[in-house]
Design brief:
Layout: H1 2-22, H2 38-48, E1 54-61, E2 67-73, E3 75-80, E4 83-88, E5 102-104, E6 107-112, E7 115-119, E8 137-139, E9 141-142, H3 147-172, H4 180-199, H5 204-224, H6 237-254, H7 257-264, H8 274-312, H9 314-317, H10 319-365
Antiparallel strand pairs: 1-2, 3-4, 3-9, 5-6, 6-7, 7-8
Helix pairs in contact: 1-10, 2-8, 3-5, 4-5, 4-10, 5-10, 6-8, 6-10, 8-10
Main location: membrane
Organism: Winogradskyella wandonensis
Function: Key component of the proton channel; it plays a direct role in the translocation of protons across the membrane.
Length: 371
């Protein structure tokens, strides 16, 4: 219990002190006044929930008026018209408007709205149409190590370390010690309250490993997204789609004869209706179920980030209407309570995804009694 209390106090302190002072720090004018307009805040929030080619913790303006970014670059890996090209993201100098051209291996690249483009042969700068779309550049296959990939790797290694240590403890003792005592009740909860009742006694052991991995992976990444590190891994549609596809592959490959018979040739209904039901059931199994998994997780986590950052931005956007002290106080109170709710949502979304995955798998392996 002490560990949870200390972790919670640290999280609250960081959110209340670090986030308001660094997240919305913008360029300052020569007179020292901030230019934190509503449009700038909106653009920053939308940029924050997107993936990034560099790991930027925060930024500030120094005495010379130059923008300083605190963080580190990440490797950019591109498959272009001439093959594989690699370089570090720092070569774009944090510009995201196509103004910086990077030349590598005889090719030119620009980053526009977090997407990397390859310029056409002979082009020296990016040209845009009326809708600000590049007219002389095209997208490339991007295999870069982005900020979300770093988050996945870090959390994956932490989980491997924690659960490997827990497994080694079980070989020597019946009751784990240290951090293993925190993990054990959660592991038992997923096994006894999610896997066993939804999949059944006969088959639940086959899928408990996957359900544990999904639960802890989503939960820890959700919690990491509430820290000043700025992770928004589970708020990326590509990540939630991959998790949903894993569940789809597992319950599709594990489906028994009864499962497929109920989908393709529903028993107990008129023969003429069975083809129609088969189309509906196939759409539900192959499209609707995984789509509901990926959208629910993506939408809830992204919405949570947007709400928290919008409330923090109140101290800038309403400082004239409420005075700086009033706007800051209102922002701190609202963002604190919403952050508490987001801690609950982080667990809840991991639980819902794992529960639905177990339910779909259980439906696929359930053995029906035919009379």
């Amino acid at each position: 219990m002490k560990i949870f209390q200390q972790s919670f106090k640290f999280l609250a302190l960081v959110l209340l002190v670090v986030l308001p002072t660094s997240i919305f720090a913008k360029d300052t004018k020569n007179d020292g006044g901030q230019v934190n307009t509503k449009e700038e805040v909106e653009a920053y929030i939308l940029h924050h929930i997107q993936d990034s080619h560099d790991f930027s913790l925060f930024s500030y303006t120094n005495d010379e008026g130059e923008r300083v970014h605190v963080g580190f670059p990440l490797p950019v890996i591109l498959w272009t018209s001439e093959g594989l090209v690699t370089f570090m993201s720092s070569e774009f100098h944090h510009n995201d408007d196509g103004s910086v051209i990077v030349e590598k291996d005889g090719l030119k690249f620009a980053k526009i709205h977090s997407k990397i483009y390859e310029l056409d042969k002979g082009a020296s700068e990016v040209k845009f149409d009326e809708d600000h779309h590049a007219t002389n550049a095209h997208r490339v296959l991007d295999f870069s190590i982005t900020k979300s990939v770093v988050g996945i790797l870090v959390i994956g290694l932490l989980m491997l370390f924690w659960f490997s240590k827990l497994a080694r403890q079980y070989k020597k003792k019946q009751i784990p010690t240290g951090f293993g005592r925190v993990l054990e009740p959660l592991v038992l909860y997923v096994r006894d309250e999610i896997a066993r009742p939804n999949i059944g006694e006969k088959h639940y052991r086959r899928f408990t490993g996957y359900l544990l991995t999904v639960f802890f992976f989503i939960w820890i990444l959700n919690l990491a997204g509430l820290t000043p590190l700025g992770f928004n891994v589970t708020g990326q549609l590509a990540v939630t789609a991959c998790l949903a596809i894993f569940t789809l592959i597992i319950y599709t490959a594990s489906g028994n004869k009864d499962y497929w018979m109920h989908i393709l040739w529903m028993p107990g209904v008129p023969v003429l209706i069975r083809p129609v039901l088969a189309v509906i059931e196939l759409a539900g199994a192959l499209l609707i179920k995984p789509f509901s998994l990926l959208v629910r997780l993506f939408a809830n986590i992204s919405a949570g980030h947007i709400v928290v950052m919008s409330l923090i931005a109140i101290m800038f956007t309403l400082k004239k209407e409420l005075t700086p002290i009033g706007a800051t106080g209102l922002s701190l109170v609202l963002s604190f309570f919403i952050t508490l709710i987001e801690v609950l949502v982080a667990f809840l979304q991991a639980y819902i995804f794992t529960m639905l995955s177990a339910l779909f798998i259980g439906m696929a392996v359930e053995e029906h009694e035919h009379h």
